[in-house]
Automatic annotation (TrEMBL):
TM regions (residue ranges): 21-44, 56-76, 82-103, 176-199, 249-268, 280-299
Signal peptide: none
Domain of life, per lineage: Eukaryota
Keywords: Membrane, Transmembrane, Transmembrane helix
Protein name (database record): Vacuolar membrane PQ loop repeat protein
High-level lineage: Eukaryota, Fungi, Dikarya, Ascomycota, Pezizomycotina
Topology class, membrane: Multi-pass membrane protein
Annotated GO CC locations: lytic vacuole membrane
Region described as Disordered: spans on this chain: 128-164
Length: 315
């Protein structure tokens, strides 16, 4: 490894400018981030056996944004790697939505019998109450509420044990995960550059006629940006309405933030010419515009953390 670094630095100084290298590195990190993006949320849903924390509207609009992004990439005849990544996005979105629908349907089916068996007018009163409840008004209500309270407490404990063994440990784990993704993206770019797979794109090269004339592709790009900007609003509202971020993976949104920052940085590092920025404006809006919304969700994670909830309950 130590012998590779001088060779890479020499190649960088001779064949590649720092601006081109940064553009490639940021782009590769963004690619690695998007590949691993949905894994934390998929694992959290699997561990808790629930998907109640994430908004299906959020995921559906996000899928619509990825679908229009794929359509625009195909229409504009972009490079195969961009099209392949857009296809991967759509497949990953579909997997997460399918998982959420499965858990919501399964949990609804499991809750339904307990609701039906709570009370029936034709069922004798003594059979609904245990023998120990006779002559104790309200004891059945207290027992059922206590039982449901224990169920909620057990589920909450399970979530906290899986997702938050300690706030400091969670942040350390998330930080290490992000650093790992950065390392993978950087190493991937270095290998691709040394192997000749990745080549810098000239700033003033002739654009293909398809990308010059495909107005529809640009419209799809702006539509995708609008979808990305609007997708998080239902999730932010859901968190605000429930005063909770339970069931959401913080690492999922951290990776989303890093992916958007590095993607926008890769475009800007490549060139700041007006025509180039105008061509990539839909993607810049879609990446940088969602940063504010991700930061809003981070604030909600802080405001609605279990620690502050337990403090309120203890008062």
């Amino acid at each position: 490894m130590s012998s590779i670094m001088p060779i890479a630095l020499f190649a960088l100084s001779e064949k590649l400018t720092a601006q081109e290298a940064l553009s490639g590195i940021f782009g590769s990190i963004s690619l690695a981030t998007w590949i691993f993006l949905l894994v934390p949320q998929l694992l959290l849903n699997y561990k808790t056996g629930s998907a109640d924390g994430i908004s299906l509207v959020f995921l559906t609009v996000w899928l619509l944004g990825d679908a229009t992004n794929l359509s625009g990439a195909i229409w504009a005849d972009l490079v195969p790697t961009v099209i392949a990544l857009a296809i991967y996005f759509c497949i990953a979105d579909f997997v997460l939505i399918s998982q959420c629908l499965y858990y919501k349907h399964r949990n609804f089916r499991e809750r339904k019998p307990s609701v039906v068996s709570v009370g029936s007018e034709q069922e004798p009163l003594l059979t609904r109450r245990g023998s120990s409840d006779i002559g104790l008004p309200g004891s059945h209500r207290r027992r059922s509420s206590a039982r449901s309270g224990f169920d909620r407490r057990d589920s909450m404990t399970k979530v906290l044990e899986d997702e938050e063994p300690g706030e400091d440990n969670a942040w350390v784990r998330n930080t290490l995960s992000i650093l790992g993704v950065i390392a993978v993206g950087t190493a991937g770019w270095a290998i691709a550059w040394q192997a000749g797979v990745w080549l810098p794109t000239p700033e003033e090269g002739e654009l293909p006629a398809a990308s010059q004339d495909a107005l529809g592709a640009k419209i799809l790009g702006y539509t995708s940006a609008v979808c990305y900007l609007g997708a998080r609003i239902p999730q932010i509202y859901k968190n605000f309405q429930e005063k909770s971020c339970e069931g959401l993976s913080l690492l999922f949104f951290l990776l989303s933030l890093m992916g958007n920052i590095t993607y926008g940085a890769s475009i800007i590092c490549h060139s700041v010419q007006k025509d180039y920025l105008y061509t990539n404006l839909p993607w810049l809006i879609g990446s940088f515009g969602t940063i504010i919304e991700d930061l809003t969700i981070f604030v909600q994670f802080r405001m609605y953390s279990p620690k502050s909830t337990s403090a309120i309950d203890g008062e």
